[in-house]
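Bug report (template v2)

What were you trying to do?
Predict the complex of my protein with FE3-S4 cluster.

What happened?
Run completed; filing so the output is reviewed.

Input:
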Amino acid sequence: MLEVEQKVIDELRQGEAYEGIQGEGLHAEKRFYIESYGCQMNFSDSEIIASILQTSGFGSTRNVDQADLILLNTCSIREKAEQTIRKRLTEFKKIKKQNPGLLIGILGCMAERLKSKLLEEEKLVDIVVGPDAYRTLPGLIEEAETGTKAVNVLLSREETYADISPVRINSNGINAFVSIMRGCNNMCAFCVVPFTRGRERSRDNISIINECKDLFQRGFKEVTLLGQNVDSYYWVDPITNHAVDFAMLLEQVALISPNMRVRFSTSHPKDITEKVLQTMKSYHNICKYIHLPVQSGSTRILQLMNRTYTREWYLAKVKRIKEIMPDCAISSDIIAGFCTEDDQDHLDTLDVMRISMYEYSYMFAYSERPGTLAAKRYKDDVPEEVKKKRLEEIVSLQNKLSFESNLKDIGKKVEVLIEGDSKKSNLQWMGRNSQYKVVVFDKSDSSLQPGDYAWVEVTDCTQGTLLGKLVS
Ligand code: SAH
Ligand code: SF4
Ligand code: F3S
């Protein structure tokens, strides 16, 4: 179970607040503290929120005891995610009891899912703001300062925060996430995201390119283009009527500089196109790594999940990716114990994992979410202990596959973007190769530093890491 816990914690990892400059104006004396949960999109939103608050004069703090305003950017994807946040909220409420002037705001997906119900359930919360209403945050804070509870959970069909320049929170100055679209139009039966993030909309390509160029000029070496379903990115310029699809956007970002890597996440298997694969192949700096969540290996379950592809269709996609880019790594999301899943369905999932030879997977036990299609239509009928046992089997198979994939790399020379010291020793660098694998090697060349590329020969590996030595 350890591995599952670790992956889940990784996904729910806490975003500390950052120390920013103190602004001017109405809130010049005030400081906010923000903590983020959930997916990368949420972390990216916190950077937009920080920017909005800074512009309205707020300063920031990493120390919750110094804050005038505590913000929690929340996730609803599984019940456990919400429980984690409620627990954290209990701690903040204790601080508020000692400091009644302190404001507490709940942002993000849980705010959107529960709306003003959150204020009834959590009496000490002052502000509730959904993912499309962050521009109104300064006004809502003013309202809350007068003692009125403030809520804005309106979803929008247009909001992309395109013009807001995110403040990079806890950045290593090397990798940055760039949001290219918001919302999701798919209706996977298990998923709460379409309800918490609203309709899909793409951000204009020029603002994306400008943000990426600016990052590169500031020394960043890797951008990850983010969306719930990046392959359905589509922007039509209102003046020229010129349309940009995801493959074109990817190419435009790749052309900024061969020294800046480009990644993207997430791809829905039904939407990733041949054109995207060919574009990936054409550019060295587009990383050879695709996150292609399968969710289940059983066609019957996939249909119930409303994923719109079959097991065979998915496997054909994997095969095509490997034909075009034999070195492309593929990772997946897998749900164990979806409604009606039987032993054979589970074996089908294990089988798809083996055939796809995933480099990594994010693995979850099914958690029913109120309001979703599955909650309305099906019974959550797989007993918890069965879900847990299946999940353990999935995790242990993935561990084996990750190790096997790493073993195959021994002897290869890989290009690594150095991110910093390795976890275990400051005499070693840690970085990633194009396939997103962690590579650790001795600092034998003193001229290298984080943000540099290095060629490393892989000499050994563990399940999670490639170990190697620098080659000239
Ligand atoms: N848009 C992305 C992922 C969104 S959520 C995509 O389509 O891949 C990330 C993952 O959480 C999903 O891929 C799914 O595996 C998992 N997930 C979503 N809802 C879940 C639920 N109700 N129970 C368990 N896992 C869930
Ligand atoms: Fe959820 Fe499916 Fe949309 Fe992903 S594609 S966010 S799993 S509805
Ligand atoms: Fe969670 Fe919302 Fe992301 S539900 S996974 S924070 S889109």
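What did the reviewer find?
The chain has three domains: 3-152, 175-405, 413-471. The two ends are 41 Å apart (CA to CA).
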